[in-house]
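User: Fold this, then the next.

Assistant: Folding the first:
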Amino acid sequence: MKSQTFCAPLALWLDPETALSPEHTQALQMSGWSVMPISTLDSLVAQAGDATVLVLHLAHDVTRLKDVQQVLQNACLGTPVVCRVDRDDMDLAVDATQCGALTVLASHDVRSSTWQGLHAKLTHAHAHSHTSAPSPQRSAQPVRNVVFVDPASQHLLALAKKVAQAEVTALLVGPTGAGKEVMARVLHEASGRARGPFVALNCAALPENLIEDMLFGHEKGAFTGAHREHKGVFEQAQNGTLFLDEIGEMPMHLQSKLLRVLQERQLTRLGGHTPLALNVRVVAATNKDLKQAIVDREFREDLYYRIATFRLRLLPLCERPEDIIPLAFQCLMQHEHHGQSWRLHPQAQALLLQYPWPGNVRELENVMRRAMVLCTDHHISPAHLMFDECLTSMPLAAPMLVPAAHALPSQDTAAWVSAAPAAAMPFEHALPEHLSAHEAEDRALHSAIHHTDPHNTDLHSATRLSEHQVIMATLASTPSKTEAAKRLGISPRTLRYKMAQLREHGLSLASAY
């Protein structure tokens, strides 16, 4: 099953002549669409797999439509194209239809009913395609809502698509939080197994005595308490993909059993006697140096060469900087409500580009969610960004601007990045390394309050910031939650609720709490 993050279908908006207007944005959103403007063919290739439709503006002839269709065909993407033409240019509308456009709309049509009709048309076409006889060689699309904008990421995506079409095991290596499971899903959904199940197992998250049962399953009566048969993840992933995360943490005695299953492509359940044939593709991932683990006798060399038929390395986020701003906007778009878009100030974008991101994509998501907690006007400024690592030891070079190739004319969430020049803002609230977690959080919140631009922050926002500061300062100076609640003048239940909100948005609290 494909994982979908957006509730609304995504429309890519490609119009080199004119920026996406607020009227069109409102009409699309009111009709149930998410819209993302793009300005280059590289952006089109990177995001077309996520999109339900591409909305393309034609100015004079159908050359642009043919170019776009060729790019989509080369990338094995079947995204339908809707063309926008001038209302009086009927010849161009006819030409676009003859060249394969799904439909043609007037350029200045901002009626919600038009986009609702397009939604219904696409839904009908999708339902009709599913009732038709399926093609056994159907080319699946990559998982929705992934970001491959940086040239290094696009190269990795192209390589992953080639690997996906081959029946080989793949080993994904890279740091924690770099997106290994996302890449595993891309390999699954870009392969001929996309209609089959995708099953993931974290080898480091289960007790050693349960991993074997989780992998291979058991028969009824195999051991005390085995009241019925249980299918392991290999059987659950039959005709699909099995993702073994953190495979470097698998115990040695299970590595030999896993090797045997991969070699023979069959298994026998615990307590069973009949071998079961398997048709499963295995994708493994690790953040360990497995070759060093082989030297240290922590990992079997024969298993390494069995799972690493094709090795894909995922780069840390700091080594693919052009992914940072799109990922930040992706996180913001996931939390849009009532059609109200989040905006990211150019100076905030510059700070995101300068930060080294030791926690990779996972840390970026935390930073953006904290910013959404602290910001009440949907316009995130530098004062709302709270980073896990201080930057006092990192020299701030000349301001890093948003890459021009991906610069777009709008600042809302659909537009990823701003075309305005971004001047780097000094990290005046950088935290000394010797501060404790409580002191660091208190200092960061204090700085956020005192560096907030009064033109962008209302009284409610400042009150909210102050409340978070007081809560964490009180927790740090009291021996228990009961005492902290008493000092704050609230009930323990209210305090627990507010602490849960802070944790949910990435603000760490002392382990005692």
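Now the next one, as you asked:
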Amino acid sequence: MKRSRSLVFSLVTAVVAALGAVWVAMPAFAAGVTASFVKTADWGSGWEGKFTITNGGGSTVDGWTVAFDLPAGTTVGSYWDALLTSSGQRHTFTNRSWNGRIAPGASVSFGFLGSGPGAPTNCQLNGTACGGGTNPTTAPPTTAPPTTAPPTTPPPTTPPPTSPPPNTGLPKHLLTGYWHNFDNPAVELRLRDVPAEYDVVAVAFAEATATPGAVTFAVDPGLSTALGGYTDADFSADVRALQSRGKKVIISVGGETGRVAVNDAASAAAFSDSVHALIQRYGFDGVDIDLENGLNPTYMAQALRSLRARVGAGLIIAMAPQTIDMQSPESSYFKLALDIRDILTVVNTQFYNSGAMLGCDRNAAYSQGTVNFIVALACIQLEAGLRPDQVGLGLPAGPGAAGGGIVAPAVVNAALDCLARGTNCGSFRPPRTYPGIRGAMTWSVNWDVTNGNTFARTVAPHLDTLP
């Protein structure tokens, strides 16, 4: 989520159906540090690839770089859990801040989408062959894609988990909105002036300090000036005012420009300590993780569990990942959600600024800004381990709020109906209904007010009609 007029565009290109895993074997060599590649999906015109770096040696690896060639006409689209630089058909992926260290016997992975024929060749890991020996010069053959289409929806499997949610005093279905602690072309608001339709208000944003993992918050000077004087004391009083109306106020960490890094035990402790201090100072009801530049699921989970142990079971823990972060349970953000699902309140995925993406049927690339897109992508989370009450639909509040994926509030309501009741669906229908679907989120309250408060006035009453 971004402070300027448009949100950041995700590095996502249109993709199509995933029709099964296709392995591309690297040569076998003696134990050591190796990188192996697999096509986890291949649909003829494109594919999804995954590299796994395994430390089979006896000493820790501190940092890795995987470089390879792709044939002419083959390109790399979106990618995750690595950084990418390209020169012609040579592509070089390097570790992120949280996954560069690999202990003996451990492994890490990253993935990307490829468009066109072929597979990686001439693979090198930290300057030597990915398999530990001579670099391969030709790509092994890939399995041909099936010629018949799979069913449009997957068969029912084990129902999603149904264990009760943590006790946070929230309604069964809720509307969340982000409040700007900055000034931009949207209307500036004092916190107490957030419209009554919102159940949870996420204050955007707490920001990083010089101490790794630690965050801080204060009323933005530009906002204070725009409001004719707005102090930290005024803000604290407004938090209490909203709470007296039955609302919850949480502090959101990160945003599009956020650089909060929780990558080890020390930074996890600093995060827990600093967020706890903000809760004590301002009276926040919880925390929202909106880190759009990657996170370490192990240490962020450690930080959040520490925070909850200090605050108690009433702590709200929300997340606001981008769509690419929730495509696979193996991605860092998704893994964090699953690792803390016993204390997690809600994941409000940003179903916008993403282009076309795969849904839970793995059968098509659904275009953003449609009921199909919202439902098919929410279905991934619902079928991969999150409870329905932990899944919310994040959409922009209208013109100015995002660069893509803006929908009429009626589309949000239709998506909620499709998930909760099996009605008002598009061509995609989920394998089951999820009456407990938690609700909706919007970026942002300020943009909604700028656009006449249409989002809240349309979606909030509809939430009250859900099962």
